[in-house]
Amino acid sequence: MSGLVVDTQACIGCRKCVRACGGTAGIVVENRKARVTATCTMCGTCVGVCPVGALSIEKDEGAGSQDLSSYRDIWVFAQVDGDVVAPVTFELLGKARELAAQRARCGSPCDVVALLPCGPLASSPVCGDGEGSGAAALVAGGADAVIRCRDELLAAPDARRMASWVCELARSRRPEIVLFGATGFGRELAPMVAAELRTGLTADCTVLAIDETTGMLQQTRPAFGGNLMATIVCPGHRPQMATVRPGVMAAAVPDPTRPGTVEDVALPAGSPVRAAEALEVLRRIPRDDAASITDAERLVVVGRGIGSKKALPLMRRLCELLGAGLGCSRPLVESGWLEYRHQVGQTGVSVSPKLLISVGVSGAIQHLAGIGGAQTVIAINTDPDAPIFGVSQYSVVGDCNEVVRELVSQLEAERD
Ligand SMILES: Cc1cc2nc3c(=O)[nH]c(=O)nc-3n(C[C@H](O)[C@H](O)[C@H](O)COP(=O)(O)OP(=O)(O)OC[C@H]3O[C@@H](n4cnc5c(N)ncnc54)[C@H](O)[C@@H]3O)c2cc1C
């Protein structure tokens, strides 16, 4: 096991390490001896300041010399939201199938396996068997096998319990790749799993592919404020792990005739993951589902071109008439015109509506990062050279307030 190690014989309890560690409290001094805590990130700062050489970082030889050939399948963590498997799971399965096909081409065939944690049978239809169950949907969506754990302790979205379950399974079954949705829950869970398994994790990938020469997972995501795309690989550790935001990848068309196995496993009694020791859940605030624009089929996305907050009622009226959700660019959130949950883009949400009407949005690269999944884009902008027109199928050059006002009056007339 790798980690920061204290030679307690040599330690003189001088606290220089504690000061060097700063706010993270990765090391404390108790009874005149240093002790490493769960928040240690192994950055090594304290090692350099110890005057008696009592601190060292031990590298896990096992990790560096992992037998990489013993790792095989592609796992997708199936997030269960209430009574349904979250849509991002099916998007990941669609991508996992493509990755499996690529691995097969480079001589490393593998299965796509979905991990389905759920409460006991009675608590959710997702946990049941047969048609309409979560397991059946996962197989239809691309899984060759489903590993399911039905346990009361997994009924609630407790990332610590889930992480402990995933880690136990990963240690014994050795997946080559593990994919998580970059949902609020996935963002909590995936780093815990990666830290516990001492492997890498690339968050918010927009492209995943297999390097057909090395067989490695190429994990591409925007970097440096979206100004370049970085492709990241994890050459020395397994599993290779990535998160992908909802709406970025395309789900496969479900095929209810696909064959697949379902294996029920018990929740191990094992200890929680180490990262969880540093975490205390104070309160759970339920998600405001009504406000989620991630799954909207129609969206009106407004930008600074609408001029002022006073234009928002007109935009909301358009949403109402179209049955659309309301999204926005980042400056509107920064100006306090709309809440963060409406923000579309690299640091907001990714959306994949059938129809997106972009109103007074320039189309900066960070904004475009969130709308790549939209099927049809209609853009309204006064500037004929606005980058948004580079991704729109229909381009309206003109004042957006005037255009929307006209659109609203025509839609209202149609209703009457
Ligand atoms: C690290 C980082 C992350 C970021 N993340 C995000 C993100 O997640 N989402 C995001 O949106 N941005 C993000 N940004 C900001 C992004 O770079 C842009 O600044 C932002 O998207 C611009 O918003 P906008 O198009 O509304 O405003 P502007 O760039 O000001 O564009 C306004 C547009 O409206 C047009 N216009 C003006 N008047 C009218 C009119 N009357 N009628 C029609 N059109 C008109 C103009 O021609 C212009 O094209 C991020 C930036 C950084 C550095």
Q: Could you name the CATH topology of the largest domain?
A: Rossmann fold
DSSP helical segment count: 12
* Fourth-tier CATH superfamily name of the largest domain: HUPs
| Terminal Cα span | 71 Å
* Binned strand content: 15-25%
Number of domains: 3
Bound molecule types? flavin-adenine dinucleotide
Low-confidence stretches: none
Helix-and-strand structural type: alpha/beta
The percentage helix is 25-40%
Number of strands: 21
Shape: globular
The Cα radius of gyration reads 25 Å
Strand order in the largest sheet: 11-15-10-5-8-9-16
CATH architecture annotation name of the largest domain: 3-Layer(aba) Sandwich
CATH domain class name of the largest domain: Alpha Beta
* Mean pLDDT metric: 90
Main beta-sheet strand count, sense and barrel state: 7 strands, parallel
Structural notes for this entry:
Helix 6 packs across helix 7 and helix 9 packs parallel to helix 12. This protein has twelve helices and 21 strands. The longest helix is centred in the first third of the chain and has 19 residues. The chain is α/β, with parallel strands linked by helices. Helices cover 26% and strands 22% of the residues. It has three domains: 57 residues, 2-Layer Sandwich (Alpha-Beta Plaits); 209 residues, HUPs (Rossmann fold), CATH 3.40.50.620; 126 residues, TPP-binding domain (Rossmann fold, 3-Layer(aba) Sandwich), CATH 3.40.50.1220. The strands form six sheets. The protein has a seven-stranded parallel sheet, with helices on both faces. The protein binds flavin-adenine dinucleotide. Flavin-adenine dinucleotide binds next to helix 10, helix 11 and strand 20.
